Amino acid sequence: MATLQALLFDVDGTLADTERDGHRPAFNMAFKAAGLDWQWGESLYGELLAVTGGKERIRYYLEKFNTTFVKPDHFDAFVRELHASKTRFYTQLMAEGKIPLRTGVERLINEARAEGMRMAIVTTTTPENVTALLKSTLGAESESWFEVIAAGDIVPAKKPAPDIYLWALEQMNLTAADAVAFEDSLNGIKSSAAAGLKTIITINDYTKEDDFSQAQLVLDHMGNEAELFNVLSGDSAGHTFLNLELVKKVHAA
User: Fold this and answer.
1) Model's pTM, two decimal places?
2) Which of 79, 119, 145, 201 has the CB geometry, 3.0–4.6 Å to 215, for a possible disulfide?
3) What PANTHER family does the database record attribute to this sequence (predicted)?
4) pLDDT at residue 106, rounded to an integer
5) Does residue 1 have a pLDDT over 80?
6) What gap in Å lies between CA 209 and CA 162, rounded to an integer?
């Protein structure tokens, strides 16, 4: 059995509730700034999350939910500019400290650092969004804690394709047997499982009904000593919050 060498973290919904409290408001701010009357409510946004990637999500919205919109000339540039505006609004929200990390995330990251565990970010969001979240929640130096930041369009096929995980593992000179992934969504578990990674899920309001049968452990959050997790699927081996010892047990099982 391979020894656990690395933790691979998804970002949106896993490290923080950025979809509900960051990306959705930022999209709406960008729409307003562009003079568009689009408004993505929480329910609609939950449906849009079927598609990963912000530019892809805008296209999906127009294809399925706003079919009467007359696409402008140079539509690809229109989408790119709209998404770039959204990213600026998102980083502004991050800089204002609007979005905290989810329960137990900072504790687990600090525990991993203390033990010399290698870490990486593996996400479909942009590198700018990753940097903004890390700096606003963990401090200016925190980006350097992660050996690899696999983000955005670094691979052509986004989650649920396994490409982003495979790329991260290759950069770290690791195999899937050497790491554990942390995810929160159906597209996330499809991606990590297809890459051959054992995966721990922390659900959120948008993903609580998703099929996580491919995951080794499904929790409502990572938990802390003062705020214990609920185990939705899998074996927590008697633990009441997710620490590195439990992660190692999940990896070894």
Assistant:
1) 0.90
2) 201
3) CBBY-LIKE PROTEIN, XYLULOSE-1,5-BISPHOSPHATE (XUBP) PHOSPHATASE
4) 98
5) no
6) 22
For 136-166, how does the pLDDT look when each residue is reduced to its tens digit (9 = 90+)?
999 999 999 999 999 988 999 999 999 999 9
CA angle, residues 126, 132, 136, in degrees to nearest 5: 155
SS3 assignment, position 78: helix
The CA distances from residue 131 to 26, 95, 134, 208, in Å, are 16, 10, 5, 27
Question: What is the tens place of the pLDDT at every residue in 87-105?
Answer: 999 999 988 888 899 999 9
Q: Is 106 exposed, middle or buried (0-12, 13-18, 19+ CB in 10 A)?
A: middle
d(CA 33, CA 20): 20
Contact criterion met (CB below 8 Å) for 220 and 229: yes
Contact 225, 241 (CB under 8 A): yes
**Structural domains present in the chain:** 6-17+100-252 (3.40.50.1000), 19-95 (1.10.150.240)
- The answer to whether residues 194 and 25 touch, using CB atoms and an 8 Å cutoff, is no
Pairwise CA distance, residues 22 & 17, whole Å: 8
| Paired tokens of 88 | 């600026």
How much is the pLDDT for 98?
80
Between 217 and 205, name the one with better pLDDT: 217
Among candidates 115, 109, 113, 136, which has minimal Cα distance to 18?
136
